[in-house]
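Possible regression after last week's pipeline update?

I re-ran a chain I had predicted before the update to compare outputs. Posting the input and the new output here so someone can diff against the archived version. Not blocking, just want to make sure nothing changed silently.
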Amino acid sequence: MYLKQTTFACLLALISQGAQAQTLSLKSGYPSNYVVQKGDTLWDISGKYLEQPWLWPQLWNINAQIANPHWIYPGDVLQLSWVNGQPRLGKTVQGGKRVITLSPKNHYESKANPIPTLPLSEIGPFMQTDHIFATRQESKALPYILGENEGHVGMLEGATLYVQGDLIPGQDYGIYRPGTIYKDEKTRELLGQEAIFVGTAHAQARLAKDRSRILLTSNQREVYQGDKLMPLPAQENLSALFTPKAAPLTSPGYVVELPSKARGGGKFDIVLINKGARDQMAPGDVLDVQRPGLRLTDKYGKVSYRDFSSLYDKGFHSAGRTPLPDESIARIMLFKVYDKLSYGMILQSQDMVSTGYKVSNF
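New output (post-update):
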């Protein structure tokens, strides 16, 4: 299920003093005017003008004190102007006589949906149903499925199920199954455990012996005995406020996983990285992704890629050899941050991003 665009907020505030000190670099061939199209995102529009799209609050001269800033809608005409030698992007009114500084804010119901920061169809499921257990013990304390009286092993939508645990009647719950355990590739520290989203349920009644009855309202996969339940957040409480900014990361991290389980990801694909709130990460942080330089073997001047070399050459002719340089190939923006892990979306990509690729600030 997806976040409703009418409740999506892409509030942009003043960026940090360090970011504001950066000089805006306009892309070659930028348009002097641009008509906003259905399907555009704020990131893509900024990317038509800036080499560094995360500096868009500076391009649009966002002011947190503005009481009634303006959304951008399909059909709006954007116009580039210059103020004191600095580029400014604004929205023209009919006749092109007036330019209004852009500053999106909350919008709840309109004939047209405003342009979001990121594609809602991609991040919506992660915002509403995604979860990562901080420890393996966290899942053990949750209510769990006991089964149904028809005796099915795999339970599907419409079934009446029984739960060990005191649920709140009328509350909607997500059903989860503990999955992959994420550990740091070097220190082996536990970073978290995947919570596989199985389906949704509606709590109907409390029963004796600390049990509850639920109605299984939807399935992503079959529900099994022992699956865990957690309350689903109300849509109005979902936070989707992104202030794009360069991440404050001081030590590099890496891509832990692509939730799609694909071997590589491109633009608008999701990645999981091994940095989170304890590393001062926050939604809106933009990070650089680097492809690791390949390792080499060098046998008396005969150079080969290490992966294609013999075991003998790997053992005796690669130690201490400097690999090829790392290459910057992508930019990601974080949108959901846990303590030790974060989800980000690939927003710019020159090549496919894979597990193990380094992430850092720039």
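Follow-up from reviewer: compared with the archived run. Residues 1-21, 63-70, 95-111 have pLDDT under 50 and may be disordered. Marking as no regression found.
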